[in-house]
Predict the structure.
Amino acid sequence: MTDHGTLYVVGIGPGLPAHMTQRAREVITGADCVIASNLYQEFLRQDGTLPPEGEGGEADPEVVRSSMGQQVELTREAFERVRDGEDVANVSGGDPNVYGKSDLVFTMADADDATDVPIEIVPGVTAALGGAAMMGAPLSNDFCTVSLSDKWRGWDEIEEKLRAAAISDFVVVLYNCWRNYERAIGILREERADDVPVGIFNDAGRGDAGRNVDGEAFTVTTLGEAAAHEEDVGGMGTSILVGTHETDTWRNDHETYLVTPRGGRDVEDF
């Protein structure tokens, strides 16, 4: 056991250096092996967290490409590397605990009886937090996230969660919006007024480096009009934030923001 390395599941937030924690950077640069998708490799090479492709020296980590279809075999490979004394950084976008890789690692460790493998989760900025920062202060009261992916959860369960969140007056942040987002909006409209503010945001924290053709962007609309913004739902980098009856728009000379007050609406209430 003393000769083992550590398996780190590292959240790099949106991926660019300004939104990655110092701890995440230290773990990646100090690892013997970094497992990351092509997109995350590109982000990590931009500021020198990883060396340019093909230019790594003996002291630099070995970089292994990951993809959605390889997660199980790469996790199993990571266990063996750790047992051989390597420190392995398995890179996850956003935060590993928010629809990231951490659950797979623990599930695999249980299935493979890998209780000897040290595991550390390194948190990162998830899309809900990055998008909220772009749009002002929409998460200052209770909120929840709901994934619209029906790969692991049936739509009946997703609908039940959406309805419960709407009735409970949570601000709701929808992930995986390329799947069934119009259907989700329709359910929320059954429980929440059409004039509730909504923010649709893409590639929060990625500037022009993400997948969205217009780069980092957000649109403020209403729940009643959200389904008409199909052109703003750009794919995997898109999330949608649905406010409550307390959420307001706030404008200055530069932008329109969303604000959900934590308590009252007056300064004296704080």
Observations:
- Residues 71-83 form the longest helix (13 residues).
